[in-house]
Design goal:
single chain, about 80 residues, alpha+beta, globular
Length: about 80
Amino acid sequence: MSSRDTSPHLCEVAAKLGACASAVSNWCAVKHLQLNAKKTEVMWFGSATNLRKLSSADQHLKVGPDNVSPSTVVRDLVSSSTLN
């Protein structure tokens, strides 16, 4: 994590989220599918205070060999949500 004062809890959450995304990617590979990192999106939710503790580098999610950048808008097949 960055040199900023990031709480261990936030570091743990980011690591667990990355591990879950990698597990999904591995599951896809076993099923002869491929997770498209270019179409994969991540949005961080939390208080403004906690979100400020995450540096720009810390907000990226590692999915296998790929890095997923955070989004302010995440789309799904049904609707759109916007972070304001």
